[in-house]
Design goal:
Keywords: Membrane, Transmembrane, Transmembrane helix. The chain is mainly α and 211 residues long. It is built from nine helices and no strands. It has helices at residues 2-11, 13-16, 34-55, 58-63, 65-89, 97-122, 126-140, 142-157, 162-210.
Amino acid sequence: MVVVVLFLGYSLPPYLGLDPARARTVPPDGVPYYYPLLVTHIFLGSLALLSGCLQLWPWLRGRSPMVHRWSGRVYVFACVPGGLAVLTFSAVTYWGPNQQAANTMLGVLWVATTIAGWRTARRRRFAEHREWMVRSFALCFSIILNRPWGMLVMAIVHPADEAAVAQAVGVGAWLSWVVNLLAAEWWLQHTRHRRTRRKVAAERVPAAVGA
């Protein structure tokens, strides 16, 4: 939550005035819808990051289930159109096909995992809901790690021309969400096995007492 607040405090100000000249990304020529959709994605993504932090806070889920439910609705409302906005402008981003493919796949998976999380909650399959929302937030959090990964790749490969820079930016874009998703899957597997062991242990105690 602290990381999210710091990131938003740094990233949001250039877009609050709705001035395309202050945008940190390079808008392509001849694409008038790029900046409006970019701003839409940024504002909705910011809302998703903040509400997602509330969603994953165990204390809040236990003490205030109503807040959890409403923050979940806000998260879904922000993620789905925010992800769809990515899909509309990702194909024309400045740094070429590698970055475009990474951002497009990120948008598809972000929307898909969020909808899956919402549907499982509606069906009261809360264990599955938890896992889908962890995946969704891992993808949402990728925007925070995109720049650090890009800087790391640049430092390693030392690109000599713009084509090499474009490839490095693309690799950073892939790493920003693929690593997150792999980490989320590892965490889910770990916690799934831990819950299974606890359930087995709890079932053995009554049996031992009865014996």
